[in-house]
């Protein structure tokens, strides 16, 4: 392969697209017809270079929103962790049965290869930006273009490092086949991403006119996460001094975002529905026209963009299919009392993944219960019976009845997998597009990639790992105070297994964070312990008989890299 154009012709590891075709001794193939594109002649304007970036934004949006409802993306979003599982009707899509999860599992390959696609496009954009024929309106425009490309490359390597550990570092467009990539270490992978972000921090604007484009706070947030992840790995490697220095840098970069004057937690009602009595400020965060910084949302750092007009006209992927994919199916699981697909049951849900009982109930047990994020408008637990023959018609259906309405325990287990509280992040009482034929499957609001709340929780973790449990508790309480929680944490609560921080992440970032990234970068046995404890179905406890804090390198990648052995991650050579 020579250059990049068609994303589907990627080689298994580098995943670089083919502009020129394979080299050959055939005279015909040695010719250079005027219609044969190369990196050097494919671009003539800066706008064309920007389109490469647009393709990355689009791919990352689709990777997050999952408009195609790909099973492997649900794993990326958290299926199989302590927070999410699958409903009874989707047991074949479980990611908690380690009798079938192995190095040949296609999910690992899809995630690994997708991040290398992003890296390939980012390298391509950087090379194209430096072509001599490209004219830029200003040095700042060129610098910003390159900065966005480097951001995405760093973003991809951060994800690869957290999920797979040390991986091959591809730094430029590959124009010939290569089968001898060597693995970096996990720390080296993090450091490469850090170096990319440090080099472009000041080339990114603090704010942007339109939503969705990368700003400086997004880079600083990722630096905070990268230094935290690197410090955790250094500590595991026995390099305590270096680890503490990394944690200190994590705190520094998180503080740039938290205390820099650009961002702040929203603490009072705002936006399009602020005058409605039924809402609260946390609910406001997830309403249409309220998500972007440009909408007055000062805790919004980086968002994916969804546009209903574009969806109707040409972009069928411009949607959040959350009501469909994440929504409960009361019409099956509690059919004697609840039915339909209207707003009262969260829309047209089909339960592709479900919240575990840890996510829906355990984190709000006892003293943790009084919390704005547990209010009925945010996490709807009061579901009104709508079946005329039900004794609960027009009244709240008790969860004991929903969960245990059958004399058969297996039926109850299945039904309770289909029925659960409805988060305001996945449903709404005002669906867009109903007059155009939409059926309450999709939301048409923008969504968060980075919200200030997560930056605060990263800093809390870095502080705790750096020995400052009081500071960690104070950061957690920034969120708990905003949520008007009755119970505020103290240094004594900050346990060494990071349960307080992980629980707070679940409360604050349900349906937002990439939970696998969080659990795997925590190190030790945290991921395995929590999966075995909180998985909805019993297969995890029965089959997860080994410890790991990295996913396996996909076997396809190892096999393709025939000239150099890529070592498999510990625990997966079984």
TrEMBL record:
<dbReference type="InterPro" id="IPR033985">
    <property type="entry name" value="SusD-like_N"/>
</dbReference>
<keyword id="KW-0998">Cell outer membrane</keyword>
<feature type="domain" description="RagB/SusD">
    <location>
        <begin position="400"/>
        <end position="572"/>
    </location>
</feature>
<dbReference type="Pfam" id="PF07980">
    <property type="entry name" value="SusD_RagB"/>
</dbReference>
<keyword id="KW-0732">Signal</keyword>
<comment type="similarity">
    <text>Belongs to the SusD family.</text>
</comment>
<dbReference type="InterPro" id="IPR011990">
    <property type="entry name" value="TPR-like_helical_dom_sf"/>
</dbReference>
<feature type="domain" description="SusD-like N-terminal">
    <location>
        <begin position="28"/>
        <end position="228"/>
    </location>
</feature>
<keyword id="KW-0472">Membrane</keyword>
<dbReference type="Pfam" id="PF14322">
    <property type="entry name" value="SusD-like_3"/>
</dbReference>
<dbReference type="InterPro" id="IPR012944">
    <property type="entry name" value="SusD_RagB_dom"/>
</dbReference>
<protein>
    <submittedName>
        <fullName>Putative outer membrane starch-binding protein</fullName>
    </submittedName>
</protein>
<dbReference type="GO" id="GO:0009279">
    <property type="term" value="C:cell outer membrane"/>
</dbReference>
């Amino acid at each position: 392969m020579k250059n990049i154009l068609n994303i589907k012709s990627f080689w298994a590891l580098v995943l670089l697209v083919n502009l020129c075709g394979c080299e050959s001794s055939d005279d015909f193939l040695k010719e250079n017809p005027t219609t044969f594109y190369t990196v050097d002649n494919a671009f003539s304007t800066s706008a064309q270079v920007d389109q490469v970036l647009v393709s990355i934004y689009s791919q990352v949006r689709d990777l997050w929103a999952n408009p195609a409802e790909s099973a492997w993306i649900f794993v990326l979003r958290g299926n199989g962790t302590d927070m999410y599982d699958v409903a009874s009707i989707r047991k074949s899509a479980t990611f908690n049965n380690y009798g079938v999860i192995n190095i040949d599992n296609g999910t690992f390959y899809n995630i690994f290869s997708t991040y290398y696609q992003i890296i390939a496009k980012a390298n391509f954009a950087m090379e194209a930006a430096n072509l001599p024929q490209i004219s830029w309106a200003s040095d700042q425009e060129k610098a910003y273009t390159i900065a966005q490309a480097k951001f995405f490359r760093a973003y991809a390597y951060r994800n690869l490092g957290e999920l797979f550990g040390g991986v091959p570092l591809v730094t430029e467009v590959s124009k010939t086949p290569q089968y001898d990539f060597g693995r970096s270490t996990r720390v080296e992978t993090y450091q490469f991403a850090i170096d990319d972000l440090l080099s472009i921090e000041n080339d990114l604007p603090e704010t942007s006119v339109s939503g969705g484009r990368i700003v400086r706070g997004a880079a600083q947030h990722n630096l905070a996460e990268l230094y935290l992840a690197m410090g955790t790995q250094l500590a595991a490697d026995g390099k305590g001094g270096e680890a503490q220095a990394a944690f200190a840098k994590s705190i520094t970069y998180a503080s740039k975002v938290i205390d820099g004057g650009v961002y702040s937690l929203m603490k009072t009602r705002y936006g399009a529905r602020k005058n409605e009595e039924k809402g609260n400020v946390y609910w406001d965060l997830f309403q249409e026209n309220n998500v972007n910084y440009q909408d007055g949302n000062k805790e919004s750092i980086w968002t994916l963009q969804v546009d209903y007009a574009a969806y109707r006209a040409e972009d069928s992927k411009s949607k959040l299919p959350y009501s469909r994919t994440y929504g409960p199916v009361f019409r099956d699981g509690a059919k004697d009392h609840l039915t339909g697909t209207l707003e009262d049951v969260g829309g047209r849900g089909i339960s592709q993944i479900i919240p575990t009982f840890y996510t829906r109930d355990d984190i709000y047990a006892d003293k943790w219960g009084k919390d704005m994020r547990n209010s009925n408008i945010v996490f709807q637990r009061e579901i009104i019976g709508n079946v005329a023959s039900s004794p609960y018609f027009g009244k709240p259906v008790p969860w004991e009845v929903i969960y245990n309405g059958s004399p058969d325990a297996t039926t109850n287990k299945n039904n309770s997998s289909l029925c659960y509280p409805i988060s305001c992040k996945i449903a709404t009482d005002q669906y867009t597009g109903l007059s155009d034929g939409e059926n309450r499957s999709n939301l048409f609001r923008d969504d968060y990639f980075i919200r200030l709340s997560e930056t605060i929780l990263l800093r809390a973790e870095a502080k705790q790992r750096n020995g400052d449990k009081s500071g960690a508790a104070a950061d957690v309480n920034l969120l708990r105070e905003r949520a008007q929680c009755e119970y505020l944490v103290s240094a004594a609560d900050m346990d060494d297994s990071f349960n307080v921080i992980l629980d707070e992440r679940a409360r604050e970032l349900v349906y937002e964070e990439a939970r696998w990234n969080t659990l795997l970068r925590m190190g030790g046995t945290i991921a395995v312990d929590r999966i075995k404890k909180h998985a909805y179905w019993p297969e995890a406890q029965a089959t997860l008989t080994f410890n790991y804090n990295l996913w396996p390198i996909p076997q396809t990648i190892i096999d393709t890299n025939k000239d150099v052995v890529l070592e498999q991650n510990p625990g997966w050579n079984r």
